[in-house]
Amino acid sequence: MGEGGRADYRQFLMQPTPRAYALARNGAWGWAAAIDNDTEATAQRALANCAAYGGSDCRIYAQDLAVVWPDAAAPAPIAPTAPLAAGPGWSLVPDERFLWQGAQAARGAYLWAHGRAAGGADSRGSQPQPHARAFNNAGYDVLRLDRDPETDETEAGAARMRLALAELRARGYARVVAAGQSRGAWDALSALDAPGRADAVIAIAPAAHGPTGSPAHEWALRDLSRIIDAARAPTTRVAIATFTGDEYAPDPPGRAAAFARLAPRTGALLVLDRPAGLEGHGAGGDGRFTLRYAACLLEFAEGRRAGC
Fold first, then answer.
1. How far is 35 from 103, CA to CA, in rounded Å?
2. Can you tell me the distance from the alpha carbon of 218 to that of 220, in angstroms, rounded to the nearest whole number?
3. I need a labelling partner for 91 at 20 to 30 A (CA). Which of 53, 61, 126, 211 fits?
4. Are 112 and 95 a contacting pair, CB within 8 Å?
């Protein structure tokens, strides 16, 4: 296989599951990911893509977390099925869609907190955004902070984030990254109110006050300022991403100015303020965000990069 196929395989390794990568003897390849959340349909699409690029005998090389080619390496390490910790309304769950090393062997722990879905829908079990793959591929265990929508109020969510981070510290992970989207990102920022809880925080489109038209938007910036003023995390590196057209983020310039005040309260601050070509509250899950920023977020979290 030429460098083009190898480069495409590196992109494949950043994709959500289900995913499949197909090869042919003549060096043709093709891949697919997340086709209707159907493993078989995703594999068939990968084979079809390989054939469309000139492969006459395409076979699946890698599927989900494993290389399945004959004589491949040992099977991928699988995450435990039981929660590592739990309490009323929450659980700390290893995500089985990511490679697993365990606290002593892993490079660190990446904790993902989902958003709070409109209408009280249950977001537990939702797959972390694809940028988490950069951390997993580098050796981090990926875990979810699943929260019951029936009891997922703002202060409760923040308290559960603190408990989950304390559990990961107690288990001996060398590094701990707190990450999330929307309300999960808000909870991760709330955990900055004491030093040492996390080595890095990655907050994607943080929000806690509903969409445009919500009466809570009146005090959204005030509440954000309260979280920022409470931050006491002099060694924690903080990355924040906001997006144009985010209906959950009133007053984007005011929010950007508020986020900037985190700089002297944290170890380092990176604000991706409305990057070009990415729009809406869910833009952090866009493949373009992953390709542009996933590696940078990993390097920033580890102190190997100052910006993106």
1. 32
2. 6
3. 211
4. yes
State how far the Cα of 297 lies from the Cα of 295, in Å rounded to an integer: 5
Among residues 96, 124, 106, which one has the least CA distance to residue 168? 106
Instruction: Tell me the sheet residues that pair with 59.
Output: 23
Paired tokens of 111: 């904790």
The residue behind tokens 């990415």 is 278
**Nearest CA-CA partner of 126 in 141, 137, 142, 102:** 142
- Nearest-angstrom CA–CA distance, 195 and 198: 8
Asked if omega into 18 is within 30° of 0 (cis), the reply is yes
Query: Which tokens hold the place of 262?
Result: 């985190």
Closest by alpha carbon to 17, among 62, 50, 69?
62
pLDDT tens, position by position, for the chain (308 residues)? 889 999 999 999 999 999 999 999 999 999 999 998 999 999 999 999 999 999 989 999 999 999 998 877 677 788 999 999 999 999 999 999 999 999 999 999 999 999 998 777 899 999 999 999 999 999 999 999 999 999 999 899 999 999 999 999 999 999 999 999 999 999 999 999 999 999 999 999 999 998 988 888 889 999 999 999 999 999 999 999 999 999 999 999 999 999 999 999 999 999 999 999 999 999 999 999 999 999 999 999 999 988 88
- Distance between terminal CA atoms of the chain? 31
Q: Length of the chain, please?
A: 308
> pTM of this prediction?
0.94
Q: Got the DSSP string for 120-189?
A: G---TTPPPPTTHHHHHHTTEEEEEEEE-GGG--HHHHHHHHHHHHHHHHHTT-S-EEEEEETHHHHHHH
